Amino acid sequence: MLNTDLRSQITKLRNEIAIHDRHYYVESAPVISDREYDRLFKELQDLEKAHPELITRDSPTQRIADEPTKLFPPATHHVPMLSLANTYSTQEVEDFAKRVTDLLDHEPTEGYTCELKFDGVAMSLLYQGGRLVRGATRGDGTAGDDVTANVRTIHSVPLSLHSKSPLATESFEARGEVFMDLEGFRKLNAQRDEAGEAAFANPRNSTAGSLKTLDAREVAKRPLHFVAYQLRFDAEAVEKSPELDTHSSRLALLKEFGFAVSKETRVVKDTEGIMHFCMHWQEHRGALGFEIDGAVMKVNSLTEQEKIGFVAKSPRWAIAYKFETAQARTRLNAITLQVGRMGTITPVAELEPVALTGITIRRATLHNADEIVRKDIRIGDMVIVERGGEVIPKVAGVDVSERPADSVPYEFPTTCPECGSTLVRPAEEVNWYCENAECPAQIIARITHFSSRGAMDIAGLGAQSVEQFVAAGFLHTIADIYDLASRRDELIALDRMGDKKVDNLLDGIEKSKQQPVARFLFALGIRHVGTSIATLLTDEFGGIDNVSEASEEAIDAVPGIGPEIASSVYSFFRQPSNTHLLDRLRASGLPFHGEPKKKDIVVSDFFHGKTFVLTGTLSTMTREEAKEKIEARGGKVSGSVSKKTSYVVAGEEAGSKLTKAEELGLRILTEEEFTREIA
What we know:
The protein has 25 helices and 23 strands. The protein is α+β, with helices and mostly antiparallel strands. It has 5 domains: 2-62, Helix hairpin bin (Helix Hairpins); 84-322, 2-Layer Sandwich (D-amino Acid Aminotransferase, Chain A, domain 1), CATH 3.30.470; 326-402, CATH 2.40.50.140; 440-587, DNA polymerase, domain 1 (Orthogonal Bundle); 611-678, 3-Layer(aba) Sandwich (Rossmann fold). Strands 14, 15, 16, 17, 18 and 19 form a 6-stranded antiparallel sheet that branches. Strands 2-13-10-3-9 form a 5-stranded mixed sheet. Helix 1 runs antiparallel to helix 2. The protein is globular and about 80 Å long.
């Protein structure tokens, strides 16, 4: 009786949580508070912990796997995941509709479904008996990667179906797109910046990289969403049932099953309806909150789809209209330099305000000095600004026909605009840096990073408090944090402070002195040194004093550390301002000492003893992560191509390094080949 009552209680909790997940993640309309949801979830966790024999695979508590997977096994698609024919021409969209009419000898009886073309990663989900059994990427269309563990972490993917429809227990496949919304993408990049990790280029790259991450616990931290756009049943009798003979009816059934389905999908009668849909979303896509790169039109009747058939690798009953990258013309009034937390100097275009995809653009990134030279961008130019896959607007080019007669090439400054320090540009890098740790523009960001949860974890010293203390003149460097105890009365006198709040802060500062040495090294904010690199360095050398005394060659020799990182670390410890800073921190009792801990290298025949060069943008990982994987397998990463290079790994938009590799006849690996060798 006890087990029966428990099973009933646990089932009720699971169903209730699943319903609330649907309200929150699918419908964006929560009906209970976060606290109430957390209470339900905790109650279920406690019951399952006390009775592990009652845990099932589809429980909401089992979304995240406990251990990382070793590799992604191949997953064959029962029905190929074909790509759609793309067009950028409205005339070709009209031609598509005319061909459909000619092939049917009449206009489609059920019209067309018009859908947004989400800019994400195509995904196939298989369900049996109302439960998710597999999630697979598109791959080459015939077979992809089995990424079930990662897909299970996406809350808008139902682990089990809570639908009254009898079809919910049939075996079926739901296809759709995994994507990342813009707000989540911005927060993710802010977190990566705080952790000293490289930012993702755009939402699609971050989505692809997340789905290829071997540890589902990390994937669970990514703001991923799934939207369904196709339903296919295994049973032929169900697949051919009259009530499911339209694409729109299947979308409605997917929604009934609990899947997120695009609210913007419309059924239209003819070409005029198609063009209205395309033009509307080409103009208003900026208001969506997520990236789309076009619209998809499908003949709504499945019987008519079958009659129209396929050509080559694409259906003739569907077409994708790709939007042009959103652009606008405006005047470049000035170029200012933005100083980041790590001292990175980013040139920013100050523009005459211009409307673009629903927002007013006043500033746009110019990326780096080389981009300004390559595009010959000058102050006073009429420039073309665009928002494509990038969230941040960028200057794409110049209309030289409107260039002022007195125009002169832009000269990149050699000193920091905030502190006047001489800027440096490391070999093989495109960015200039200010390496003065006391640079005013970097102070707030550096101190906030130092006290953040992943670093010294000082409660009560968040960005708002740091800004307040800097404005009051109490903080100038991270070393000043450990002098705040002497200013207790002054702190209490500040707005929004008080005895208890200040005492908690001072207690947190004192406790931070007990943090592991690797956290302290990461907290210092050395360029290219994230949490994993800090751990590699302290495992190899022990304390920070040993790291600071190591030669650049010794640092470079550490598995997982390349020449770029070695140069950055070596340079940091030889800056006079940093030396003074470290002396103050040492006097305050910070953890400078530790024991080396050598790590075994997983020797791979393919990687061991080979020299790799990375070029272009990788979609499944950052360059730092790629370096770690190479060097953890016994390989070495170089920043330049030479005859000694064993392999060049070429990502998207590979540049001069790829050209040189081709000239030297070196072996070039695509990202797919590279990730296959890693797996």
